[in-house]
Simple sugar transport system permease protein
Amino acid sequence: MSNKKIETQFEIIRTFVAILMAMTLALLIILLVSKQPVDALTSFLTGPFSSIRRFGNVIEMTIPFVFSGLAVCVMFQAKQFNMIGEGAFYVGGVAASFIAVKFLLPAGIHPFAAILFGGVVGGLVGLLPGFLKVKWNANELVSSLMLNYVCLYLGLYMMKSTIRDPNAGMIGSYVFPETAMLKKILAGTRIHSGLFIAILFIALTYLFMYRTKWGYALRMTGLNESFAKYSGINTKRVIIYSQVIGGLIAGIGGATEILGMYQRFQWSALPGYGFDGIIIAILARNNPIFVPIAAFFLAYLRVGADIMARMTDVPSEVISAIQAIIIVLIAAKRFLAKWQHKRIIKNSQEKLAVKEG
């Protein structure tokens, strides 16, 4: 067995151990604070599977999580700690709503034109931190966090000045025409055809990252920017297109969520999916193949915590404790590092013994 394979196994095991420890601690907290711990645990662990509607809630939440997780994976693989996914997700929804309301297109074309436009606008938003980083070495973490609020208020302004419905009784757009909305695919739930778009982007992102020269350049820049530069890779271009692609995926995610789950645009605040994408990317180890698993897991926890809060005396905030513990343990470089070191040494000794024998 190669040392690279051992390292891959170690990361998978480390993630599962972190999840197991976090879940165990959460269950202990429930046992200590709840007057009805058995009901709370049952609601939390089995509630999402207790009906087709509740399971549908998990899948519905998984769809935007997949897009935000993929967006963060692309940027983090290039070692660009860009948080613009939140703003790109929001403006993607605004842009898609504009196309949905202002243009009358055939049913088969309308939603995809709106989603594509949302992706383009999201990509332009992602371009800004990348350009600032390359041009003036501005920290992408700081610039993207600030730009999220620029996206929020600029998006609200554009929505209010172009597509706001004055008779809605709320801050929202006109109702989307049927031709612009994504179709529901499972009766009794709100699961929509955006699920297929999410699956498509999982495949496309993986192929881009691991089967193209641009993806290779992106990963090499993330591993060692100086080495990549001396190898002939244009690292400045990589920094820019990694964040453009991340913004594009997030924008498509926002557009898909709006057209699949809502009848009109009604986000008056940032939806939070961009920050959820960071949790998903950490759980998936920045690998697009693992993103749907991480997205489903997080959605399962959120829905389970919500059911538990409604059915018992345990608040849904317990999920925040689980998320925090998982992130801390996975981010801790020394967590289970001794076990990994012993495995590598043992593997090397076995290889040496085989050669000498």
